[in-house]
Design a protein that fits this description.
alpha+beta; Jelly Rolls; six-stranded antiparallel sheet; five-stranded antiparallel sheet; 4 helices; 16% helix; 33% strand
């Protein structure tokens, strides 16, 4: 797993084994994941979304603790996946990184608790599956306007974004910070330290 520019996020770039039947890959390896993050992935929920071209989902996040870490891949079509550092006090607060996920490279992104997440469908019928460390809890879930200029996610030009009414009505980045809705870098780091301690065999 290769670290992204935002602390607490990685991309998995699996080796694909093609033959005359098709191909095979390991899109998640528990040992590699544990070696990289220092803890295992607690699988509480697995999600699957199907999106037409232009669908923009996010930016979503959950209160920390416990937050909701996600391991995300695209099994059909292509999406542009966004990891956004919304943790107050973080050295990269307000920064984002985009990773293309598609059914050719089969890359996957892991983002730890406290980070914001969204994606833009680049093709019709883009199928995204993600493993979640916590189940959906509406009282802890939040969103930020993915098109907020202050957030400045570098979405590609030429694709008209299609948002749900809920995402379209999400607060701006500045408003979410002003209202105290954003997780802190220290709280997120402390929660991850507890995860590592809980998984420490010593």
């Amino acid at each position: 797993m290769r670290p992204l520019s935002i602390e607490g996020a990685w991309v998995h770039e699996p080796k694909i084994f093609p033959d005359e039947r098709g191909s095979f890959l390991e899109w998640f390896r528990g040992g590699d994941f544990r070696e990289t993050t220092g803890h295992g992935l607690n699988l509480a929920q697995a999600n699957c979304s199907v999106s037409r071209r232009g669908t923009l989902r996010g930016i979503h996040y959950a209160d920390v603790p416990p937050g909701q870490a996600k391991y995300v891949t695209c099994v059909r079509g292509a999406v542009l996946d966004a990891v956004v550092d919304i943790r107050t006090g973080s050295p990269t607060f307000g920064h984002s990184e985009l990773v293309r996920l598609d059914d050719g490279t089969r890359h996957a992104v892991y983002l730890s608790e406290g980070l914001g997440h969204g994606f833009l469908a680049l093709t019709d019928d883009a199928v995204v599956v993600y493993l979640c460390s916590e189940g959906y809890a509406p009282e802890r879930e939040h969103g930020i306007d993915p098109l907020d200029p202050d957030l400045a996610v570098d979405w590609p030009a030429g694709i008209a974004p299609v948002l749900s009414p809920k995402d379209a009505a999400a607060p701006s980045f500045a408003d979410a910070e002003r209202r105290g809705l954003l997780p802190s870098f220290e709280a997120s780091a402390a929660y991850r330290r507890r995860l590592r301690t809980a998984h420490d065999p010593d």
